[in-house]
Amino acid sequence: MDSNLRREIILENYQEPLNRGLVEDESYLKVNTNSESCIDNLDFMMKIEDNVIKDIRFDGEACAISTSASSIMIQTLIGKTVKEAKDILNNYKNMIQEKEYDEKLLGELIVYDEISKQPNRINCALLPSVAVEKMLEKLN
Q1: How do the domains of the chain map onto residue ranges?
Q2: From CA 26, how far away is CA 28, in angstroms rounded?
Q3: Distance between CA 68 and CA 64 in Å, rounded?
């Protein structure tokens, strides 16, 4: 991916993240996630109906990578089934960890395909996927 386009997508999702702001609704799964290595401390909430992710929201304090990754991940996962979401999350983690992955499943999440070159940013990019996985585990 062109580095200017990558930078533009990340910056846009950091400055104007979608689905930022929590709602008062008991039907949402909720989780807090944070990073021990930086300021990231985010609350996530997700609504699932008929095995489909209907909504994901987040709020809190986080760096540019965590905030933008949260915004992009949310956009990618809304409307997906739980199984599709798990496949996307697995492929995303594999990409971040420089393992084999299916690029077609990731959409704009592909902007983090070189984040491993900045090891101190890996946890920032993984934070939203950890949150979503924790919420999905609550279904079992």
Answers
A1: 3-137
A2: 5
A3: 6
Which residues neighbour 78 within 8 Å (Cβ) at sequence distance 6 or greater?
19, 53, 54, 55, 56
Extract long-range pairs of 92-99: CB within 8 Å, 24+ residues apart: 92/129, 93/126, 93/129, 96/122, 96/125, 96/126, 97/122
| Residue segments in the chain with a per-residue pLDDT below the cut of 50 | none
The helix/strand/coil state of 39 is: coil
Cα separation, 57 vs 47, whole angstroms: 9
- Is 0.85 surpassed by the pTM of this model? yes
Right CATH for 3-137 from 3.40.50.300, 3.30.420.60, 3.90.1010.10, 2.40.400.10: 3.90.1010.10
The count of other CB atoms within 10 Å of the CB of residue 53 is: 21
- Structure token digits, residue 80: 């997906």
At 25 the pLDDT is: 96
For residue 46, the one-letter residue type is: M
d(CA 10, CA 5): 9
